[in-house]
Amino acid sequence: xxxxASPVACGPEIRFERGQRAVFCGLxxxxxxxxxxxxxxxxxVGSRTCAHLIQSAAGVMIFAEPRFAxxxxxxxxxxxxxxxxxxxxxxxxxxxxxxxxxxxxxxxxSCPSEVIKLDLGRAxxxxxxxxxxxxxxxSYSGSGIETTFTQGEDAxxxxxxxxxxxxxxxxxxxxxxxxxxxxDQFARLLTDxxxxxxxxxxxxxxxxxxxxxxxxxxxxxxPFLTETARALxxxxxxxxxxxxxxxxxxxxxxxxAAARAFGVAxxxxxxVTEPGRARAARALTAHRARLAGKRVFLFPDSQLExxxxxxxxxxxxxxxxxxxxxxxxxxxLAEDLALLPDGTAxxxxxxxxxxxxxxxxxRPDLTVCGxxxxxxxxxxxxxxxxxxxxxxxxxxGYEQAGDLAGLFTRxxxxxxxLEA
Length: 420
Ligand code: SF4
Hints:
Rossmann fold, 4-stranded parallel sheet, metal ion binding, metal-binding, oxidoreductase activity, acting on the CH-CH group of donors, iron-sulfur protein as acceptor, Light-independent protochlorophyllide reductase subunit N, 4Fe-4S, globular
């Protein structure tokens, strides 16, 4: 089902679609979140399906001591719920005995009906009271009914916000899970700009709890953090509007927005960012030759699609056929949307068959999509890029701009080799 919404004047044409969709659930985000918060543990309360999903999504990175597991809750009636809570308590205590290094435990809800009946928020509060101060227990939902795979990160970070201490002092909070190497680069650049103190959400360790208050300005590093932003604003924090830090241009505008909010002179921004901009420009040159003029179709999957489309079109010279996104936060994405070429077709939501028809008719040079669509489309001789890789790979900032472009040029190069 499709409905055309009024276009933004001289901007992209945004329309809504509703129907069947093909997106992973929020449990998937555990795969990158458990690497980020080093003394946290993610206990999925779910079914065997959830356990399989997590194991296969994380299959590429099996650790001797993984920091996630699934407590399998079998079919049970309401009378069995008290037992389920006791069972959960037992699983948690056994886990903590075996893993005394855990400081933060997330109980992650899923969609089987027997799990929905469990009040994980209450279970987390009860366990937290018992286990404090050694271990904090929080809960959030990664259910496929409520979340797509990046919304799992949003739900996790939103669960952290009420637990942050209060502070009246001015500070900058960078929000969104970033690879440590990217976080270090941003911390250096922001410090060189004279902005501080700079803190990150999530922290690398459970004890790193950034204080928040009315003088906290926050800068989103990921475009899918609607609930986290709302929770921060309830604590008085104020968002700094900016495009997302993908590509050289996105990174410069993101840093410049923070600099403006903290009264840093534009000349200082130019001086501090110049070496990074130059390195990114060099790294992007070869990729631009491969991507310029290529027609790209982005299926809705990661919610990174709008800033990616901006990067592909403005920095790589690609032509955008359609930019799909599962949800479009018009305020958080306003700066990126404004930089898309006039008339870009942006689709919010999904009607899978209709979108597949449009993609097949357009025969794009490159299709960015979820794992489930990639194989059939490759079978139809279309070149695809898995959008989930964009979450597993460090892509933000100047030093990663070349790697970001490389994610798109690699499938094109592989196809060219095969054809040769
Ligand atoms: Fe499947 Fe729901 Fe479990 Fe996700 S949370 S794996 S969608 S059952």
